[in-house]
Amino acid sequence: MKKVMGVIVFCTLLNACASYQPIVDTKGKARFETSNAEELSNDKILCAKLAKNNSSFLSNIGFWITSPEADTQYTDIYRKCMVGRNHQVLN
Which of 39, 45, 67, 85 sits most deeply, having the most CB atoms within 10 A of its CB? Predict the structure, then answer.
């Protein structure tokens, strides 16, 4: 019974990782000539949808186990998408 409860708690905690919200520096222009802050809301929605469509529960677990930063595949795709759209993602 304890093993079953452990698996349920683990799955619940891992599922909570799918609600990743990046911290974006909207004022910083260190890498970019112009600010991209006006596109932030739209880009968050599109990147979240892209990450959700390209990750699954099992792929998140496998990615989390092998990732040096202990990120899920969802988080990794989301972050790369935001950086690819010229946002400075801090987290």
Answer: 85
Residue of 72, 66, 31, 69 lying closest to 54 (CA atoms):
72
Q: What is the token pair recorded at 29? A: 């222009």
SS3 labels along 4-41: HHHHHHHHHHHHHHHHCCCCEECCCCCCCCCCCHHHHH
The single-letter DSSP state of residue 75 is H
Per-residue pLDDT of the chain (91 residues), as tens digits, is 777 666 666 666 655 555 777 888 777 655 656 667 788 889 999 999 999 999 998 888 888 889 888 888 999 999 999 998 888 888 7
Rounded-to-integer distance, Cα 20 and Cα 65, Å: 18
Distances (CA, A) of 30 to 33, 35, 80: 8, 10, 18
